[in-house]
Amino acid sequence: MDASSKITTVKPKRCAVYARVSVADHQSKTLTSIDAQVDECRAYIKSQQSLGWIMVEPTYTDDGLTGATLQRPGLRALLEDVRQDKIDVVVVHRLDRLSRSLFDLTDLIPLFTVQQVALVSVTQPLDTQTPNGRLSLNLLTSFAQFEREIIGERTRDKVAATRAKGKWQGSGTPLGYTVDFEQRLVVFDPDAGLVQDIFHRYLSCDSTADLINHLQQHKAKNKTWLTLDGKKRGGLLLDRTAVYRILNNRMYIGEALFHGEWHSGIYPPIIDLDLWKQVQEKLAQRARRKGVSNETRSPLEFPLIGKLFWHDGRAYKFFKSSPRDQKQYLYYVAPTTAEEKASGTGPVNMAAQQVQDIVIEKLRSHLSDPQEWLARLVELAAGPPTLEEGDIVRALKQLDEAWPQFTPQTQAQTLFNLVGRATVFPDKLAIKFNMPAVLAIVREIGQSGASTRT
User: Fold this and answer.
1) Backbone angles phi, psi at 174, to 5 degrees
2) pLDDT at residue 292 in the model
3) Angle at 106 between CA 103 and CA 110, to 5 degrees
4) Rounded Cα–Cα distance for residues 17 and 15 (Å)
5) Which CATH number fits domain 165-290: 3.30.300.30, 3.30.1330.10, 2.60.40.10, 3.90.1750.20?
6) Whole-number mean pLDDT of the chain?
7) DSSP-based three-state secondary structure for 165
8) pLDDT given at position 31
9) Which of 22, 33, 171, 321 is catalytic?
10) Strands 60-63 and 13-21
11) Could you tell me where in the chain the CATH 3.90.1750.20 domains are found?
């Protein structure tokens, strides 16, 4: 057979399309933004048929979800199929459809690299398998994140301008208020009476528990409101958290928060200033008796110090109470804003041991079954002294088997060293481990084992 009759076989490349829009399009249109993205990606894949590119169905889409988080059903389905080796190329219309966060993208790219999956943007030529392509990827993502931050800054300026005029933006108002036809915040008398009663009773009650019991006996509830997508929220019995949010909400003395500061004389007040000052003094006295946050706590007490964040990047603080009945209570304190306190939304405080137990369980699951870590650890261990996969697996399993014998102090110190970042979502805790630190412990265990055998 001569050279002209030879047939070149091109290996097929399975191409998956991912598309996303930030705000769901509920209007009747023949072509939505997602449809446009998918059509352009399909056309691009078809143009690469000579290279063996074939379309994988169905497409992966997220309609009405922000690119600032990875918790998207369509994206999670895509990543799961990547892990199961069902995809060779991921095609997007533009890189920010995949993620607007440089931090999130640095988590996605290693997954694609380990699975040998290429990332292609139809409108932004890049090849993630070359140094130039990775540089372009980081630059593009940086600009996407910059754009998102600019949008956020403009939104904050708009909210500040609205509040300076005494108007309210959002679907839920604090208990005691409603909005008029001009979107101005006005007092709603039935609920305002309940707020005033809470302030007065807090001063007269011997304990907060007595106040809570009284409110729940009388079926006092927080405000019922609808989200922008029509979901009902609130309407629950007032508990300790809700009461403290009411007692600390400066909106009730007519102040509004914008540009990071409280400004007086903006909203119609429900509580007079003298009553407010008395309540704040009593709150401060009780805080001094119970103990206050101490920024010099040891990592042995709080091994997630500086590593625990709400999913939008706000850091948790920490709190250790004064001794009470021979017990002390340790909490990671939520970075809740005044607006979140007013509306009853946002992060909540968490018992330190409860959070740490979740992280330890996740850590030990990786130690006992290190397959998810193995490729990264082998890559890091390439330099001298080299470690084989078997050595790494044995060392991690030895660490897992020895864990129950560690003292609480050793466990806390190990946790502090190995956890890189823990991110709290409304429904889950995402943990990123410090892989160089894991490798350091693996080497240490390997050296100890070698010394013992010698």
Assistant:
1) -65, 155
2) 43
3) 155
4) 7
5) 3.90.1750.20
6) 80
7) coil
8) 59
9) 22
10) parallel
11) 165-290
Q: How confident is the model at residue 297 (pLDDT cuts 50, 70, 90)?
A: low
In this structure, the chain runs to a length of 454
Q: Does pLDDT of 144 surpass 70?
A: no
- Separation between Cα atoms, residue 39 and residue 36, nearest integer Å: 5
H or E element at residue 156: helix 131-164
158, containing H or E segment: helix 131-164
According to the CATH classification, is domain 9-147 in 3.90.1150.180? no
Q: Tell me the per-residue pLDDT of 62-91, one tens digit each, with 9 for 90 and over.
A: 988 887 778 889 999 999 899 888 999 999
All CATH 3.40.50.1390 domain ranges in the chain, comma separated: 9-147
3-state secondary structure of 15: strand
pLDDT at 28: 45
**Range from 127-131, 191-195, 283-287 that averages highest in pLDDT:** 191-195
Average pLDDT over residues 300-312: 84
pLDDT band for position 344 (50/70/90)? Answer: low
Alpha-carbon span 326 to 328, nearest angstrom: 7
**Cα–Cα nearest to 74, from 431, 102, 66:** 66
- Contact in structure between 65 and 72 (CB atoms under 8 Å): yes
* 3-state class percentages of the chain: helix first, strand second, coil last, to nearest 5: 50, 15, 35
Confidence class for position 258, pLDDT limits 50, 70, 90: confident
Question: Per-residue pLDDT tens for 47-57?
Answer: 988 889 999 99
pTM of the model: 0.41
Token reading at 51:
């290279």
Three-state DSSP class for residue 54 = strand
22 carries an active-site annotation: yes
Bridging pattern class, strands 261-263 and 256-258: antiparallel
348, 286, 346: which is closest to 321 by C-alpha?
A: 286
CB of 350 within 8 A of CB of 258?
no
257: closest CA among 145, 190, 315, 170?
Answer: 170
Q: Which residues contact 48 (CB under 8 A, 6 or more apart)?
A: 15
* Distances from the Cα of 278 to the Cα of 146, 211, 307, 341, angstroms: 45, 16, 37, 20
Give me the pLDDT at residue 325, please.
57
Q: What is the pLDDT of residue 78?
A: 93
The answer for residues whose C-beta is within 8 angstroms of residue 285's C-beta and 6 or more apart is none
Q: What angle do CA 432, 436, 441 make, to 5 degrees?
A: 105
